[in-house]
Amino acid sequence: MSAGMKSSLKKEIRDDLGVSVDKCYQCGKCSAGCPLSEEMDFPPSYLLRMLQTGDAMLQEKALCSFSIWVCLTCETCYSRCPMSIDVPAIMDFMRQKSLRERKTHREARKIIAFHRSFLKSIEKTGRLYELGVLADYKMHTLQLMQDLALAPKMLLAGKLKIIPELIHGRSDLSSVYSGTIKKK
Amino acid sequence: MARIGVFICHCGENIGATVDCEKVAMAASEYDGVAYSIDYKYMCSDPGQNLIRQAIKEKELTGVVVAACSPRMHEPTFRRACNEAGLNPYLCEMANLREHCSWVHEKNEATTEKAIDLVRMLVEKVKRNHPLSSIKVPVTKTALVIGGGISGIQASLDIANTGHKVVLIEREPSIGGHMSQLSETFPTLDCSQCILTPRMVEVAQHPNITLLTYAELESIEGFIGNFKARIRKKAKSIDEKLCTGCGLCTTKCPNKKIPGEFNAGLGNRTAIYVPFPQAVPNKPVIDKLNCTYYTKGKCRVCEKVCPTQAIRFDQEDEIIDIPVGAVVLATGFAVRGTDFFPEYGYGKHPDIITGLQFERLASASGPTLGEIRRPSDGKIPGKIVFVACAGSRDPAKGIPYCSKICCMYTAKHAMLYQHKVHDGESYVFYMDIRAAGRNYEEFVRRAIEEDGVNYIRGRVSRIYEKQGKLIVKGADTLLGGMPVEIEADMVVLATAGIANEGSEVLAQKMHVSYDQYHFFTEAHPKLKPVETNTAGIFLVGACQAPRDIPESVGQASGAAAKVAALFSQNELTREPVIAVVNRSAPPMYSTCAGCFMCVSACPYQAIEKEELTDRKGQLIKTVARVNPGLCQGCGTCVAFCRSKSIDIQGYTHEQMVSEVMALLNN
Amino acid sequence: MTMALGFYPGCSLKGSSREYSESVLALAKAFGIELTEINDWNCCGATAAHNLNRNLSLALPARVLALAEKQSLEEVLVPCAACYSRLAATLHDLNRDEAIKSGISELIGMELKGSVHIINIIQFLDKYICPLLENRIIKPFSKKVACYYGCLLVRPHSVLHFDREEEPQSMDVLMAKAGATPVDWSFKTECCGAGLSVSRTKTVARLSGKIVMDATERGAEALIVACPMCHSNLDMRRGDINRYNGIKSSVPVLYITQALGLAVGLDPVDLGVQRHFVNVEI
Left, alpha or beta for B644 (phi > 0: left; psi -120 to 50: alpha)? Predict the structure, then answer.
């Protein structure tokens, strides 16, 4: 742990979200119950400790972690935490920040690409166009064979919409996007 | 002609740095009736007190005002000093220049002006003070101990051994409390019952102790030295004089499936029962709620088989009144059940048990005769998981505090398991190890280093059942929060220690404070651990907070010493600050109109009706009279009285108004 | 008895989970309950929005709520558990802080009071269908069922105030009323893998695999769900699940509305049962 300058990530979290990382007494209940714990590079309690130290290097590591992207926001940690720390809110915060600062983990590429394709589809039509999302995702991740086997079955079951639904308020959404995710 | 002495204290820097004490003394010296006025660094010191004593004699003072700290600090000090110099102590008052002035204001003109005002108010009051004498009340030298666990037992024995009488009441059929349920005690692994039962027997046989089991406090009134306790002796349905304790009835009772309280729900008992073989008194009681005769009108087998015809189905609860001088609360604690944990199955898995239930399994007199067996199928578990901090240190579950004893008894349980099941595997999920007593740390190390108990630092997120096994999902925080999943045969939760059921009801009856967890509150957290805010009522043991046996025993002896000190006096002195209904010459006799609103207002039932009669014995009028022994000087009656016929000695209407007028007439 | 109740289907119900929508509408029609779809509703943003941008994650649901308010819909049924969770979270955040509410209102360019009361499918069934259910059960759903609640219906309790976080019972009670025998099992609220269906399928196979395994081992003859994401993971991804578990499980997955629909004698085709990947044998 570097003895260098103490960054303010946990202070930011407290000011922005009202969540106090210092309340965590490292009991590990979150890591114990997290369904994705075994796939994370840093389980949730460990991540919280990294933030608690206020250490710049550890904070960077946390922002660049894979943990935050594989987190499913299933809220299990929050529901069992004895200190009622809103870990999912911290995860959202870290994700958004790591994206803004372009610090995302390599292995999270596909996950982030999917989210991006999803949101792009909504910006265009207002409602999810699954075929469009999948096509865009495949283009960005080159996962060309992804779910190819499922497609015919879905078509037969009537679950695949060929034509997207367009809402009237698309321009409203456009301005929402410019004011949020597209803002520099 | 009033000759008041005014003494302004600097209290070192406490008052002196903010208030111009010299100026205050000067201002006071100008007042009508003030014969002497000085300031000094430390009035409470010996030389300071000497100043007062000398001034009283030399200046022939008729009253004293000491302007210093709070009367709660030093009123007794200065009153004693005045008394020693021959001035009635109630002609001495204090003006609070510290808590009411220097400690709450900045140093400036206004602060000194306020100090001058305060002094002037008290000078005017003291001019109107009357000499008063303390009230003496007798002391009943019998102590009431409520609760027959180890704390209550120890307190009773200690008080009884000083030569005073003790009445010990316990709501269960036997004394012994939780200590009698334990198998072995840490850190020595002494057999719990072996060290407890001799004391229990001593209590039963002690000539100074009256033991009443299956009895509860109904109500209590009075004050220190003079309580009247009303006890309800619940009907045992047994004539104790005839019963020999042979136990035949308990073997013949057909109703055998009642979950036994002593075995923490792991074993059954009969409707007529003795809680455990070493019970004191070793006589049965009938559980009216479950007995076939009481609920359905049939059976009566016990009556038929009893060799001394000791069964009495028609026995009723008996109410007795006992005068006592002090009360010791030793009602102990309870442990949370497994149903408190949603993530561990809401208590539906029989193989997830509490620490207390594990004690019963490990105990030689328990439902499994000392073998650790699964409650579900009776098999010996090959893998046990102990969960420490189950419910404690958990604000989300409403119990933020630490239950103190669990780290120790969990280590003990794990050790006992390893001793009994040699090839068994035990795991302890913990957050911290709190082992702060004598030989405690070494005890826990023994569990880890010699008995092979696996300690994992992390809390358990969830426990669920799968094909007869219990899947425990925990984490190892010392390995970065790595998830650890164990397939256990049995899980022991070290559940939180909580206040006993009915604690708040008892506390309200006793006018004793309790906190949000219903633990009773002591008078001062550091310096008065065994006293309460109600004089004459003492607290011992776990009814105040979870604690272990040596602490409880130590506290019990401490409280016993306080009781003994109380009983060492034949009379108690009470402050004369009490209400008095005026009396005057005929034909008035008293301005009291006999409306008796004061009687209903008084929270201490201290006001009575007095019939005033002439020499022939004929009734003139009935007026109110305050019982000086019961009055606490709260003043509620004074506020109620519409004719101003009742007044508080030392805080009369005249004195109070004079203070207000002194403030206004600057 | 007809009454107007708002309806927010969400994207899944219009797309790959259309049988859920079909069953909801069929059931509502059978009981005379009128559902008024919110005009021009947009996607709530689901997982993607709150993962990538906070304000977007509030704005998208906020627009839906504002539209409902404009239509004077006081109560809105939200059958998709994910949409329900997003709308509830948005309402919670907006109603807690006036500054945030006005900021989002400005962003979407619509007035927003935050007054809409949203209900999930189980609350809807409890309130509107249950009171009328007694004499309508024609073909009791007499199977052993494992009710799967997933994450977002019951967590976090402080926001949703619905049922209980551990071992919830509301669906089990409903299914018992329909004639089923709910099985007591241990994976009622364990996550199925949610939105990682496409980007990390093996995780879904693992997590959903455990759920199917436990239900199958306990003798469940059907899994009952109330979320299109969960349904998709447990049903559509059954092939991956079977490969992960090494066992082929043919326990079908039904929406609770389908199960109830079958119990009151509705045509299985109207309930969209034939659209499932794992065969449903009634």
Answer: left
